[in-house]
Amino acid sequence: MNINSPLSHRSLEPENSVLYIVGTPIGNLNDISLRALNVLKNVSFIACEDTRQTKKLMNKFEIHNKLISFNKQNSIKKIPIIIENLLLGKSIALVSDAGMPSICDPGEDLIKCARSEKIDVICIPGPCAALTALVSSGMPSSSFIFMGFLPKKNIEREKLILKIDQHKETTVLFESPHRLKKLLNELKEICGGEREIQVFRELTKKYEQQIGSNIDIVLNYFEDKEVIGEITIIIKGNNKLKNNEIDEDKLKKDLNELKNAGLSLKQASKYLAKKNNLKKSLIYNLY
């Protein structure tokens, strides 16, 4: 591709030896763009997270093109094959099950590899659950932190939730439905039940829901309900930090004494937080 050529050459898409990153609907199939449809119809083939999911989109818009599976389980094997086809002059579209590829999926590795081979990568923008929820939440959106899915291991999760508690910016998370209640309880323990939060379920779909406005209210809503569907969470930043009003030296000393006595950092932090009427995260971060 000639980088000095006018943008009008985009009308000739798809071009040879180009990897197209195509945004697809996150729920409502009518959110697909005309440009995306054209690329999906005319590329050499489409690499998709789950061929069954992509076929639903293809069938609706009568697109008959070759699909290959490209996901976390087979990406190491498939990346060299896709790169080889691009180097041979083929045009390839990358799609995920919903939204923008490479966000919380192996598309990131494919794009990195393509760029290292000097292959052109062009994004066909489309819906994104994180941004859709963020702008609908009413929370500050000029500066935000996207953390995707939190790790499953408890130690790593707790460290990140402690960071969320300290963030002054709005935080955006994804979570699976069967782990939502666990996450909400973890957020309450560290951030407090009054922390402002919005939980979005099934964005753009028929049964879309927006549940808020703080952790306690959301927990109460889901208490006796089965959680189903795709979940996006928006957490308001913490603008009420008062670290300068606590005796850090004394708390550090107490924390070390409790650890030396055999308590874990988590246990010691929880004890001192309750004793001093402070958030556990404030003490935890002193360590």
Strand-helix topology:
Layout: E1 18-22, H1 34-42, E2 45-48, H2 51-60, E3 67-69, H3 75-87, E4 92-95, H4 107-116, E5 120-124, H5 129-137, E6 144-149, H6 154-166, E7 170-175, H7 180-191, E8 196-201, E9 209-214, H8 215-222, E10 231-235, H9 248-260, H10 265-276, H11 280-284
Parallel strand pairs: 1-4, 1-5, 2-3, 2-4, 6-7
Antiparallel strand pairs: 7-10, 8-9, 8-10
Global shape: elongated
Looking at CATH, the homologous superfamily of the largest domain is Tetrapyrrole methylase, N-terminal domain
CATH class label of the largest domain: Alpha Beta
CATH topology of the largest domain: Cobalt-precorrin-4 Transmethylase, domain 1
* Main sheet strand line-up: 3-2-4-1-5
Helix percent reads 25-40%
Q: From N to C, what is the helix and strand string?
A: EHEHEHEHEHEHEHEEHEHHH
Question: Structural class per helix/strand content?
Answer: alpha/beta
- CATH architectural category of the largest domain: 3-Layer(aba) Sandwich
Give the uncertain stretches in residue-range form. Answer: 1-9
For the CA atoms, what is the radius of gyration?
A: 23 Å
N- to C-terminal separation?
53 Å
How many strands appear in the DSSP assignment?
10
| Biggest beta-sheet profile | 5 strands, parallel
What is the beta-strand fraction? 15-25%
Query: On the 0-100 scale, what is the average pLDDT?
Result: 90
Number of contiguous helices:
11
Number of domains: 3
Can you describe this structure?
With 287 residues, this protein is an alpha/beta fold. It folds into 3 domains: 7-127, Tetrapyrrole methylase, N-terminal domain (Cobalt-precorrin-4 Transmethylase, domain 1, 3-Layer(aba) Sandwich); 130-235, Methyltransferase, Cobalt-precorrin-4 Transmethylase, Domain 2; 243-284, no CATH class. The protein contains 11 helices and 10 strands. The protein has helices at 34-42, 51-60, 75-87, 107-116, 129-137, 154-166, 180-191, 215-222, 248-260, 265-276, 280-284; strands at residues 18-22, 45-48, 67-69, 92-95, 120-124, 144-149, 170-175, 196-201, 209-214, 231-235. The strands form 2 sheets. It has a 5-stranded parallel β-sheet with strand order 3-2-4-1-5, sandwiched between helices. Strands 6-7-10-8-9 form a 5-stranded mixed β-sheet. Helix 3 packs parallel to helix 4, helix 6 packs across helix 7 (180-191) and helix 9 (248-260) crosses helix 10 (265-276). The protein is elongated, with a radius of gyration of 23 Å.
